[in-house]
Amino acid sequence: MAEMYDHTIHSRNTFHNGLPTPDSELENNKHRRPSLYATPVPHSNIAMLCHTPDELVQAIQQFTKQDDTVIPGLEAMQEHYSLAFQNQQNDHRCPAEDLDQLSFYFNIFDRLFFFSSLQNLCAIRLKSIEGHHAGQLDSHRSNWRTEVPPTHACLITISDLTTTKPPLPYQKRMKKYLGTLLHEMLHAYFEVYGCMCTEVCTWRYNTLVGIHGSSWQDAALAIENATCRLVGERIDLGRVDSLAMNWIAAKSMPVEGTLDLASWGMTYAEVRTAYDYYVELYHK
Ligand SMILES: [Zn+2]
Ligand SMILES: [Zn+2]
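Predict the joint structure of the above. Result:
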């Protein structure tokens, strides 16, 4: 199946030594969801070696606007998704609380929103995270790299919500896991493909992508909009909270009107509410 991938993606994909190939992985899972994996990954001709985060954003924007009929396994995925939400008791374990299932969602989301550019690049774990974070992305390119397996570029940690008191209802947990997974996958996408070849590129990357900078927000919006159509309901990537967290990190809110928040479908008041909430939380 390797020839189905864009060669630029493939040449950057240097981290899967020793891992099972996608084919053998699919073969092993065949009995579980044959209809999803029986079709090849769509060929992507989007150039991934670009010097600006904007081009990475455009790749996602264009891909998520494509004609749905060319997406293999879309119906099976939608069916699986709605089944996962049906008639579950709050104390039941969510499918997303099983690592195999979480990896399954990762593969689906990679195919639907990231043109399979993240395949084999991310290790995933479910774990309680300190400090009110829903998720975390470690990568070999960042300062948070000690726990990333040598076989992968990134490590996605999804906060285990079964331990919260009182426990979150089943459906809320499920939605939170999937939103967090997409959120962290977007971080991984920029971590892997964002160019830092020169000081100019590094400056652009730090300024526009940052933690949740404008490029990250633009791409998150495109993905979130596409979830309505592709998954059947909106998956929340936590864009408002993420922006508020950036302001917390910067220790101040920008003056109202200096950012075009409406283009991200947000209001200043909304982000301020989130900001105030985090100020309160971290000063307790
Ligand atoms: Zn560059
Ligand atoms: Zn984030």
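Residues 51, 195, 197-198, 201 surround zinc ion (ligand 1) (CB under 6 Å).
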